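Database export, one record per block. Field names are fixed; values are copied verbatim from the stored entry.
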Amino acid sequence: MSDSADRSTREYALDPLKSFAIRAPAGSGKTTLLTNRILRLLATVDSPELIVAMTFTKKAAQEMRERVINALNAIKNSESHADPDCSHELAKVVLERDSQLNWHLIENPSRLRIMTIDSFSQRLVRQMPISSGVGEGFSLV
């Protein structure tokens, strides 16, 4: 993919009115793109819990959460740097929104719904034990 096409695709993925899935090789910037998408979405919602980001591994989910919090911390601590992937500018907007709406994301990163597909599924079943037909006492195998 050309640099121009790649840049265009990344910009499309940051549009909060669009849905998308990412499939790309290791080292291509998937986590950075998803982190920026989360930051962009946080700039538009009234509550961080309204955003759900899913990935396959716990490691990837934790890394995305850490990147979001690190971006916010960098702004809070006035760490200015050239940021080619735009997370710095996005984080500025999110930190302002965080302050306005008293989210306290840095202190409460668990408000970020960044999880594995398995943990999302478990959460749904636990929220609706009767509807799911599984009941409360299930365990994932």
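Remark 1: Residues 125 and 132 are 6 Å apart (CA to CA).
Remark 2: The helical segments are 3-13, 30-42, 58-76, 87-101, 117-127, 129-132.
End of record.
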